[in-house]
């Protein structure tokens, strides 16, 4: 739907405006009676004339209102939430806190190790080969990837 609107805006509207030329504002909607300016013109006409006559005088109060509305954002700080947003009793928060306090390092200092052979041929932590995939499995075994902090 967005692509259709973009295509119409970029290609159809300019072509239509070129074809209409100076007659672009020549027609009127069928529900508007001839000679009737409507209440909308008087509703927006007076403020528009005021803004056009004295733009600085109009801009200052508007700017003051916008700054007042934005004032709660003066002390805003952005960050990535971590385990501290969880309740104190959450097990995942306790584990993450213990890891942060007892182990030095960060994700920036992580060392990624990739073993370039299938898991069933890669040595396991016990020293022997890793267990073979399930019988009847046609899928290639995944490659092992381990991360550690230095």
UniProtKB/TrEMBL annotation:
Alphabetized InterPro entries for the sequence: Mycobact_MmpL (IPR050545)
Residue span of region Disordered: 116-150
TM spans (from-to): 56-76
Low complexity compositional bias, start-end: 122-142
Key words, A-Z: Membrane, Transmembrane, Transmembrane helix
Highest taxon of the lineage: Bacteria
GO cellular component: plasma membrane
Family designation: Belongs to the resistance-nodulation-cell division (RND) (TC 2.A.6) family. MmpL subfamily.
Protein name as annotated: Membrane transport protein MMPL domain-containing protein
Species the sequence originates in: Streptomyces antimycoticus
